[in-house]
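Pipeline run #58 for the internal structure catalog. This entry was flagged by the ingest filter as a single-chain record with no existing model, so it goes straight to prediction. Upstream metadata was stripped on purpose; only the residue string is passed forward. Reviewer on rotation: M.T. Logging verbosity set to normal.
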Amino acid sequence: MKIFISADIEGITGVVHGDHCGPTGGTEYTRARLQMTKEVNAAARGFFAAGATEVIVNDSHGSMRNILIEELHPDVRLLSGSPKHLSMMEGVQLGFDAVAFVGYHAKNGDQGILSHTISGGTVAEIRINGVAASEAVINAAIAGDLNLPVIFLSGDQTICADVKKTLPDIETVTVKDSVTRYSALHLPLEKACALIEEGAKNAFANIPTVKPFVPGRPVVIEMVCHNSGLADNASRCPGSERIDGVTLRCTGHTFMEAFRILRTMIALAN
């Protein structure tokens, strides 16, 4: 059994600020990326203990060069660097049995740590068939195109509660409770890792009963930009349709078809 992990950083315990999320944060970023690696390792240990034969992790944050390969579990292969065609889900198409999300965060507009959706400076909201979606749900839909269930997610309490609205059978582990956008009550590092490991074990056992998330087809994705100038730029994308001053729409026969148009709109917007 092969498990694909997509790992972000905003949902890692101890992370509350932009300084934790990139190289300009100095030692704060160094600490956060080490904990990111540890939480990925914890999930991998749980999956291996439950019977997984292979685990691959896609570094899915920012430049996608955050996970410390020298600290990574020796049996886990790392996919890093950017750009990637499927972004946070690159590699999932190589053949897996299930998908897990580590360190995920709430969607833009929700009260969660560093909440945003794909591009914080561009995107106010992403809607799938009319329903606002987090990165977790967007990425679950990519997995759904490949008939893969998403079995596990870790992050703050907001994303853990939100994802269950769409993926009711997913196993979640809350590693911190958001107080405000930039403050949280955290679990100790070792406790967070222990819970993630146990959660991964439980999630692995659920693979036979967890259904893939497949939105109704054709798939309609709407992107709401923060301002009309961004939408002006994004509207140059072939396959896009301008709905109003800040909103664009694209349609695909599959989710990944629409997703590729969405990613191009975001790139053009910037």
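catalog note: The first helix runs from residue 27 to 50.
catalog note: Helices lie at 27-50, 135-145, 157-166, 189-205, 228-234, 255-269.
status: ready for reviewer M.T.
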